[in-house]
Specification:
This protein has 2 domains: about 5-175, NADH Oxidase (3-Layer(aba) Sandwich); about 180-245, no CATH class. It contains 9 helices and 4 strands; from the N terminus they run H-H-E-H-E-H-H-E-H-E-H-H-H. The protein has a 4-stranded antiparallel sheet with strand order 1-2-4-3, with helices on both faces. The protein has helices spanning about 5-15, 30-40, 60-70, 85-95, 110-130, 145-155, 210-225, 235-245, 255-260, and strands at about 50-55, 80-85, 135-140, 160-170. It starts with 6 loop residues before the first helix and ends in an 8-residue tail after the last helix. Keywords: Flavoprotein, FMN, NADP, Oxidoreductase. Pfam families: Nitroreductase.
């Protein structure tokens, strides 16, 4: 089979992370376009449960760079933080005299679906930016210290940071990072194997995971060898094994900060 192509598909297929930009600022037209496109993303139950903060204060950007341990965050010509936002709807319900005890904005469903809304909006903005020739990087690093981000951005109850997006005119053209074989991520009807050689729909023709990963390992090793020739090369499976015991992940617990923001997880 042959991939079909158009401008949208080619933009998505050529997606890459950019961490260095020129000094050229984004125009007001570019900013308005990106923000309007983000607003057109799908939203669960039409709740519009997300918002984004455009960071224009250099001191705030510098603090986000410190929290994320990524200096380039402070250098981005445009910087957005996407958040869960049930506060706006909370205010609407309060103004309509809905009894507070009857509201369900603290529900786990609201938290999860609003998080999904924020991610979809960010991805729409990212894709639009890249279609305009801009370069982007998604910033999960803002979650290194959620309470600090909440305080820094003055986030009220029923809000929570999700991801950041840095945008600018690219000053680099990195190689496309490899992606694993389609059969390792796209399955038909049922998950193909709880164990190697499992029977059931889709399992008989599925290649061994280890066989499929071997080719991906070779691609990843070559990618890193070309990008960082002076550093030890690690295949994908080696990276996963090495990071599987990363205790730093345990320090990034979101439960308590979410509860502090009023998301009690009702419905769990």
């Amino acid at each position: 089979m042959t991939l079909l192509h158009n401008d949208t598909i080619d933009t998505l297929l050529n997606r890459r992370t950019i961490r260095s930009w020129t000094d050229e600022a984004l125009s007001e037209d570019e900013l308005e376009t990106l923000e309007t496109v983000a607003q057109r993303a799908a939203t669960s139950q039409y709740l519009n449960g997300w918002s984004a903060l455009r960071i224009t204060d250099p001191a705030v950007a510098a603090e986000l760079a410190r929290i994320g341990n990524q200096p380039y965050i402070a250098q981005a010509p445009a910087l957005y933080i996407f958040i869960i936002d049930a506060y706006r709807n909370l205010r609407i319900a309060r103004d309509a005299d809905v009894p507070e005890a009857d509201m369900t904005f603290d529900a786990d469903y609201i938290f999860t679906q609003s998080q999904n809304d924020a991610v979809l909006a960010l991805h729409a903005m990212e894709t639009a930016a890249e279609s305009l020739g801009l370069g982007t990087v998604i910033l999960g690093s803002i979650l290194n210290d959620v309470p600090a981000v909440i305080s820094l951005l003055g986030l009220p109850e029923k809000t929570f940071p999700v991801l950041g997006l840095a945008v600018g005119h690219p000053a680099q053209t990195p190689a496309l990072k490899p992606r694993m074989a389609r059969e390792l991520q796209i399955f038909e009807n049922v998950y193909p194997a709880a164990s190697e050689g499992a029977s059931g729909e889709g399992a008989a023709s599925a290649p061994s995971m280890h066989e499929a990963l071997a080719g991906f390992d070779a691609e990843v090793a070559q990618y890193y060898d070309l990008r960082f020739p002076d550093q030890p090369v690690k295949a994908f499976t080696e990276q996963i094994a090495a990071t599987s015991t990363d205790t730093g992940r345990l320090a990034k617990a979101f439960g308590e900060p979410a509860r502090a923001q009023g998301f009690t997880g009702r419905g769990l």
